[in-house]
Amino acid sequence: MYITYENIARLFPQSKGMKNDKIRFETISFCTNKEQPNGLFIPLFENDLEEAEKNGAIAALWSRNEPLPLSIGMDFPILYVNHLQEAAIQIVEHFGVNHINHDTKMIIGNRSIDEQFTMAPSAANQKHFLLLLDEWKGRV
């Protein structure tokens, strides 16, 4: 079972573009330059939506205050949020810590060290997600 557009739209109902509750996300990525098949892109550290789309993103969260690139068509679902960092935290808390019985992988960038890694939600990875949340919330 994968996280779907419907799961994400429940958290962030404001949207633009195609709405299809059956879209399933194999990845949730916070990075643009890594392959993200059937990915939901969240531009927390990098906001090159076109590059993310080239690397497999099929939808994105986007700040309500940022203009969309003109090249993004109506067939690309955009879910609007007020604050990207808060939305990223909400997604990791909801799908990385609290609901771990899905197959969607998260591609995480770490701003303190310049690296990216992929984590599958699991009981073993919960501590890594919690440490990541602490960093994003400024507690590290």
Description:
- The protein is α/β, with parallel strands linked by helices and 140 residues long.
- The chain has helices spanning 5-11, 49-54, 84-98, 126-136, and strands spanning 3-4, 15-16, 24-25, 27-29, 39-41, 57-63, 78-81, 105-110, 115-119.
- The protein has one domain (3-136): MurE/MurF, N-terminal domain (Udp-n-acetylmuramoylalanyl-d-glutamate--2,6- Diaminopimelate Ligase, Chain: A, domain 1).
- Helices cover 28% and strands 24% of the residues.
- Helix 2 links the parallel strand 5 and strand 6 (57-63).
- Helix 3 (84-98) runs antiparallel to helix 4.
Strand content: 15-25%
Total of DSSP H or I helical runs spanning 4+ residues: 4
Question: End-to-end span in angstroms?
Answer: 33 Å
Q: Which fold name is given in CATH as the topology?
A: Udp-n-acetylmuramoylalanyl-d-glutamate--2,6- Diaminopimelate Ligase, Chain: A, domain 1
**CATH class category name:** Alpha Beta
| CATH architecture descriptor name | 3-Layer(aba) Sandwich
Whole-number average pLDDT?
A: 82
Topology as H/E string?
A: EHEEEEHEEHEEH
Count of DSSP strands: 9
The CATH superfamily is known as MurE/MurF, N-terminal domain
- Which structural class should the secondary elements be placed in? alpha/beta
Domain module tally: 1
Topology:
Layout: E1 3-4, H1 5-11, E2 15-16, E3 24-25, E4 27-29, E5 39-41, H2 49-54, E6 57-63, E7 78-81, H3 84-98, E8 105-110, E9 115-119, H4 126-136
Parallel strand pairs: 4-5, 4-8, 5-6, 6-7
Antiparallel strand pairs: 1-3, 2-7, 8-9
Helix pairs in contact: 3-4
